[in-house]
Amino acid sequence: MFQPLVVPSMVFAVILYLVPNATQVPGEIKGSLLLMVLVTTLLIPMLSVFGLRYMDTIPSIHMANKKERFLPFGMVSIFYIVVTYFFYARLNYDDLIVFSMIAMTGTIILLTVVTFFWKVSAHLTGLSGFLAILMVMSWKFPGGTLLYPVIGTVLLCGVVASCRLYLDAHKPAELAVGFGLGFITCFVSFYYFLL
Q1: Are 118 and 66 in contact (CB under 8 A)?
Q2: For residues 185 and 60, what is the distance between their CA atoms, to the nearest angstrom?
Q3: What is the mean pLDDT of residues 83-111?
């Protein structure tokens, strides 16, 4: 199954390697930057959620109802804010790099706020946000390098949504709102930043 926390790593992989003219990051540090994103936005938050589960703070890593999501989502939001500040204050290599972290952090904060009222799909929020970023970047940097990632992401959105329904993890409306939340937030922010 897809893990929503992997989206920032996917976005940075696209920015750094599939669309190399999108950023001014020197080639010799791209790998280190991607590894830093992977560790700070995927591994550490995921280990923190596992830690919450291990300490019985949350009953399951699946977070089946919205009350189980408050602490993990809030903790991840705070962590992303700290990482985004670090990228802005210390690793300000390129405006697109910093903006990408700001946009993804904003999406996570918005998802966390919505979670206080409704259990929307974090999976589709992440994937649809990635899809929106790919679409805007393909318009800004034409050349066809993002065609297959866009198609693959559309298919992956369908597969993940189907799996979430099959597993009875979400209702169709929760999937639609999750998809809309990620897509609209990332599309609008990247559209105005890049185009």
Answers
A1: yes
A2: 28
A3: 93
Radius of gyration of the chain, Cα coordinates, nearest whole angstrom: 16
Please identify which residue in the block is written with the tokens 């189907």.
Answer: 162
Phi first, then psi: give them for residue 59, nearest 5 degrees. -75, -20
Q: Is residue 1 very low, low, confident or very high in pLDDT (cuts 50, 70, 90)?
A: low
pLDDT > 90? residue 88? yes
Among 13, 18, 10, which Cα is nearest to 138's? 18
Q: What is the mean pLDDT of residues 47-55?
A: 94
The answer to whether the CB of 178 falls within 8 A of the CB of 128 is yes
pLDDT at position 65 is 85
Q: Quick check: pTM over 0.85?
A: yes
Query: HSE on the CB side for 28, CA within 13 Å?
Result: 0
Q: What is the C-alpha separation between 132 and 155, in angstroms, rounded?
A: 14
The residue length of the chain stands at: 195
Alpha helices in the chain (DSSP H): 7-13, 27-38, 44-54, 66-89, 95-115, 122-140, 147-166, 172-194
